[in-house]
Amino acid sequence: MSQVENARVLKNGALIAFPTETVYGLGADAGNEKAVGRIYQVKGRPQDHPLILHIASINEITYWASSVREYALALAREFWPGPMTLIVKRSENAKDFVTGGQDTVGLRVPDHALALELLKECKKIGVHAIAAPSANRFGHVSPTTAAAVREEIGTYLSEQDLILDGGAAQVGLESTIIDCTGDAPQILRPGAITQPMIEKCTGMHINENSVSDIRVSGSLEKHYSPNAQVLLDVQATSGQGFIAPADIATPPGAIRLASPRTTDEFAQILYAALRDGDSQGLTTIAVIQPSGDGIAIAIRDRLMRASKGR
Ligand code: TXA
Ligand code: MG
């Protein structure tokens, strides 16, 4: 089906799982309370957790936000479309049912051709945003392929709902979330847009120790978890899954799930490798984490939470 038709399907209240450059999202018309409510049902997610609104372009900010700081606009101009979500003060169009009752709203322009086309067609028929969390059951690993979406939530969808296939996600980890309500930006969830990139763009220093009072479900300790127990920075023993940079040899009897050659590739394939371990019925997966800055920080953040998952 074309994105013109898919936009109609959304407008009629169905859910559409769609690809982005980070992970797949489970989308609904952000102005349709009933449709958005079904996202929470399908995900098994608590009602007070806010959703990210995916928009076609920076021009949609003013529809959803009441006031936007200058540094937030600078970030949007620099990094959208891209793997970055901005938390800003909401307008009256962003209702409690998408913000979890908070007075802020999360906005993002995804960098994926199919998603952008769908968003543009949606806009033409009065759907100003697609509200979408990652298309997994609450607390699980985010899906990075259409097949993984089907595996996660396929049985919870109804007949009119759709899963679009846009290939494997390029980044592989969820967007950087930046609280833009204060005098300076604050990172709520690390991702591919890193602290040095944000500081360079805004010319502002980010205080890592200030505590935001904003709630992010992805910052819950237990999150992003496969069924298998995840062990960090230990050698796998026989029969255990093993994920490590390519230059580290597989311990005897361990089941190699991934051998990324770069940190970017590590991010790209991590979630698929964890899923692979689950589908092989492994009870334990040992992961040797990438060192360094950049997206390695986001990888270690997700792995730390995955390791708390049982
Ligand atoms: O890359 C991504 O961000 C993916 C793709 C689909 O865009 N989406 C995603 O959504 O990861 P989700 O719902 O799984 O995680 C979004 C996080 C949640 O932890 C939520 O609490 C937080 O964003 N969030 C959304 N709106 C917020 C707001 N107004 N204030 C604080 N946190 C917010
Ligand atoms: Mg999620």
UniProtKB/TrEMBL annotation:
Residue ranges annotated for the YrdC-like domain, each copy included: 1-193
Gene3D superfamilies membership: DHBP synthase (3.90.870.10), Threonylcarbamoyl-AMP synthase, C-terminal domain (3.40.50.11030)
GO MF annotation: an example: tRNA binding
Keyword Nuclease listed: no
GO CC annotation, single: cytoplasm
Biological process per Gene Ontology, one example term: tRNA processing
Keyword terms: ATP-binding, Cytoplasm, Nucleotide-binding, Nucleotidyltransferase, Transferase, tRNA processing
Catalytic activity annotation: L-threonine + hydrogencarbonate + ATP = L-threonylcarbamoyladenylate + diphosphate + H2O
Enzyme class: transferase
Compartments it resides in: Cytoplasm
Primary localisation category: cytoplasm
One Pfam family in the UniProt entry: Sua5_C
Entry EC no(s): 2.7.7.87
Membrane-crossing residue ranges in chain numbering: none
Family statement: Belongs to the SUA5 family.
Protein name per Swiss-Prot or TrEMBL: Threonylcarbamoyl-AMP synthase
Species per Swiss-Prot/TrEMBL record: freshwater metagenome
